[in-house]
Amino acid sequence: HGGGALVVPMVQGWALLPLDPMVLSVNLKGALSKTNIRVNVPSNFTIAISTQEGVLQNAAERLLGLSDQQRADLGQELILGQLRLVVASLTIEEINQDREKFLNLIAENVDTELHKVGLEVINVNITDITDESGYIQAIGRKAAAEAIAQAEVDVAEQERMGAIGVETARRDRAVAVSERQAESLSGQKQAERTQRIQMAAADAEAVGGENTAEARMAESAADLEVMRKEAERTQRIRVAAADAEARVGENLSLQNIAESAAKLEVRRAEASRLGRLAEASADRDVARLRKEAEVAQLEATVLAKQEVERRKVEIDAPPGAPSEPRLPRRSPPCAAPPPAWRVRWPPAAPPLPPCAA
């Protein structure tokens, strides 16, 4: 498997294991199947020393020092034992019908067993499978007979289908011809019916057009009458509205005149009342002023007399005599200016001088 190692003479030794494949002819006879029928399984196995790590170690331990024939005999014994186990686990039908499954089981079981001594299976070839009772041959004859019978049935079925197809084609042709003839006749009848329908429709359309025209004329006349009535009604409404508007204007004018007259009377009454009030107030003011003028005149007369008496006393008194104290001169009465709106009637006496500020 390649590689090398140092060998100490007299202490260590060495040997070679050939890796060349070996072809073993294994002729299994009389192996009992699962259905208790003995079968013969001649086969060829190609085996060799395995190069896998663990399996190669087994080969070094089990096969080192053996000759090629001894290794072949050992492998053949192991293969025969596993073949018998595989055949015993299958029925004749499984062995005969599913060869691939049979070969896979043999390869798996034999390979597992050969690994124990350092060998491995490279190829398995089953040459033929027979049995002592002839069951496999009977199965073959049965399958052949079934195949032949099925073939004959298929041939008869195909012949029947061919005859049926011929008759069906003839019938379809006759039916198709009849259908075409019926379609042609139906087309003619349909064309005639369509023509009659179209003529009737044209007549009906013409009558309908005339009726529609008459109806439109009647509608136009009715619309004209309605428009005339509507115009008359609109005219009457407008005349009535104009009359009502004129009456409303007259009423408003009369109302304005009445309101103006009433306001004038109110103003006249107010002016008369104010005149009477002013006249009464003026009379009262005139009387008061007259009284005040008379009082002032009297006071002035009294003061004048007192002044004359005092002068006389001063003149008659000897020189150096104390003079009498003078009385304070009283200011003559004054009058406040009358309001601007008052009218004095009749004119009063000459007014008094205005009061000093």
Mean pLDDT, to the nearest integer, reads 81
**What summary fits the major beta sheet?**
4 strands, antiparallel
Radius of gyration: 82 Å
Note the run of SSEs as H and E: EEHHHHEEH
CATH architecture assignment name of the domain at 22-133? 2-Layer Sandwich
Oligomeric form of this entry? single chain
Structural class: alpha+beta
Within CATH, the superfamily of the domain at 22-133 carries the name Band 7 domain
Net shape: elongated
The CATH topology annotation of the domain at 22-133 reads as Tetrahydropterin Synthase, Chain A
Number of helices: 5
Unreliable runs, pLDDT <50, ≥5 residues? none
Number of strands: 4
> What distance separates the N and C termini?
158 Å
Question: What share of residues is helical?
Answer: 55-70%
User: What amount of the residues lies in strands?
Assistant: 5-15%
The top-level CATH class of the domain at 22-133 is: Alpha Beta
Topology:
Blueprint: E1 22-32, E2 38-49, H1 53-62, H2 68-88, H3 92-97, H4 99-115, E3 119-126, E4 130-131, H5 135-316
Antiparallel strand pairs: 1-2, 2-3, 2-4
Helix pairs in contact: 2-4
Task: Write structural notes for this entry.
This protein has a domain at 22-133: Band 7 domain (Tetrahydropterin Synthase, Chain A), CATH 3.30.479. Helices cover 66% and strands 9% of the residues. Helix 2 (68-88) packs across helix 4. The chain has 5 helices and 4 strands. The protein is elongated, with a radius of gyration of 82 Å. Strand 1 and strand 2 form a beta hairpin. The mean pLDDT is 81. It has helices spanning 53-62, 68-88, 92-97, 99-115, 135-316; strands spanning 22-32, 38-49, 119-126, 130-131. By secondary structure, the chain is α+β, with helices and mostly antiparallel strands.
